[in-house]
Amino acid sequence: xxxxxxxxxxxxxxxxxxxxxxxxxxxxxxxxxxxxxxxxxxxxxxxxxxxxxxxxxxxxxxxxxxxxxxxxxxxxxxxxxxxxxxxxxxxxxxxxxxxxxxxxxxxxxxxxxxxxxxxxxxxxxxxxxxxxxxxxxxxxxxxxxxxxxxxxxxxxxxxxxxxxxxxxxxxxxxxxxxxxxxxxxxxxxxxxxxxxxxxxxxx
Length: 203
Hints:
The chain has one domain (about 1-200): 3-Layer(aba) Sandwich (Rossmann fold). It contains six helices and nine strands. The protein has helices at about 10-25, 40-50, 65-75, 115-125, 150-160, 170-180, and strands at about 30-35, 55-60, 85, 100-105, 130-140, 140, 170, 180-190, 195-200. The chain starts with 9 loop residues before the first helix and ends with a strand. The mean pLDDT is about 95.
């Protein structure tokens, strides 16, 4: 029955392995994580199953994404995933606990209005424990780093589809992070010209 509502993202299928390798290095063995913009649910199901010491809370802005997330979790049999919630990062309050050990957000900033970046950082400041980490993944533009032709074409296609979208400058994201009290703690180059960025509270 779940196969009828499973949604497959080829990109999520390709990148889940490399992302998991980094998550295992930067995160402790146990904790509570909130996933923002869980999309198909593939990451939530895969990471939770591979990291049984973590309790995973997937969320998405789109209510119609929640059944697919539940379906992927059922497919993997992971028992450390909480029921998915609808969450709008721009909302002044989020329907989740505070003192989280990590917040994970993949591939949202470039397909959402720029205001979501600041809202993500401010929400992380409200809900992360003092030593908690915010982890973002996706394509970025960086000063002094050549942008791949693929990312340039992708950025152009995003902006033609929606003028409020586009690949973000890492330095602009850092500025929003600093306003919320975070600094870039680790930068990991990932396959397909993506970056995994780890943000921590300023000392």
